[in-house]
Amino acid sequence: MPESSTIVAFIGAVVVLSVTPGPDMALLVTRGISQGRKAACLTALGFALAGVVQLPLLALGVAAVIQSSPLALDAIRYVGAAYLLWRGVHLIRNASGVSMNAPGRRPATALWALRDGVIASLTNPKGMIFLLAFLPQFIDPAEGPVGLQLFLLGLLMKSTALIVESGIAIAAARVGSLVARAPETVIWLERVSGVVLIGLGLRLAAMERLGR
Predict the structure, then answer these.
(1) Collapsing DSSP states into helix, strand and coil, what is residue 68?
(2) Would 39 disulfide with which of 35, 69, 94, 142, CB 3.0-4.6 Å?
(3) From first to last of its 212 residues, what are the pLDDT tens digits of the chain?
(4) In terms of Cα–Cα distance, which of 31, 61, 63, 59 is closest to 46?
(5) What is the rounded distance in angstroms from the CA atom of residue 87 to the CA atom of residue 96?
(6) Whole-angstrom Cα distance, residue 131 to residue 134?
(7) Do the beta carbons of residue 80 and residue 122 sit within 8 Å?
(8) How far apart are CA 30 and CA 153, in angstroms?
(9) CB count in 10 Å sphere of residue 18
(10) How far is 58 from 63, CA to CA, in rounded Å?
């Protein structure tokens, strides 16, 4: 592994990147405000669990192959866009015209929140390309096998990001709890969450092919 000073610099960079506004942050904050701490934290956990797929691919070099294949990138991109659009519409339809106290109203389940986080991370091609571009900067071939270093640094990155994003999720949920006394406000926040998901889906679908 790299030296301790390099690890400290790496963690600092990950913290900064984790709090930088972006699609994942938008999803996390709106989920926390509209659906509470549990849903937001599970979404953050979903971002981290995507590493179960991403990190082995990165360590094995498959990420480089995917990056060089426009067809593979497009397939990932469109599948992810379709899922985000569907989830966004689903959220808006469930929130529209339904009272917070109505028996038919169902909050987002733990599985939905977790799955949203995993899929949002996995189906954004830029996420894998970012890992491929960011992690090698902290690799020292003299310190051991490069693949192992990539995997361990990726694991450290995901763990650090999970801690930071969980804090953001809890903060967003606290904001949400302040407005929870006004049911109509929560319904509108869920609609905003749906719009955010739709926006992310459209953004992903319209994204120019990487490498052009």
Answers:
(1) coil
(2) 35
(3) 667 777 888 888 888 777 776 677 878 888 888 788 898 999 999 999 998 888 888 777 766 666 666 676 677 678 777 877 887 887 787 765 444 443 344 455 778 889 888 988 887 766 666 677 677 777 777 777 877 888 888 899 899 999 999 999 999 888 877 765 665 666 776 777 778 778 877 876 776 554 44
(4) 31
(5) 14
(6) 5
(7) yes
(8) 29
(9) 21
(10) 5
Q: Which of 62, 72, 104 is nearest to 210 (CA)?
A: 72
Of the candidates 52, 54, 32, the residue with the CA atom closest to the CA atom of residue 42: 32
Whole-number Å distance between alpha carbons of 157 and 180 = 34
Residue listed under structure tokens 């092919």: 209
Q: Is the pTM of this model over 0.90?
A: no
Closest CA to 98 of 192, 35, 187: 187
**Amino acid identity of 95?**
A
For residue 30, what are the contacts with CB-CB under 8 A and spacing of at least 6? 172, 189, 192, 193, 196
Around Cβ 22, how many Cβ atoms within 10 Å?
A: 14
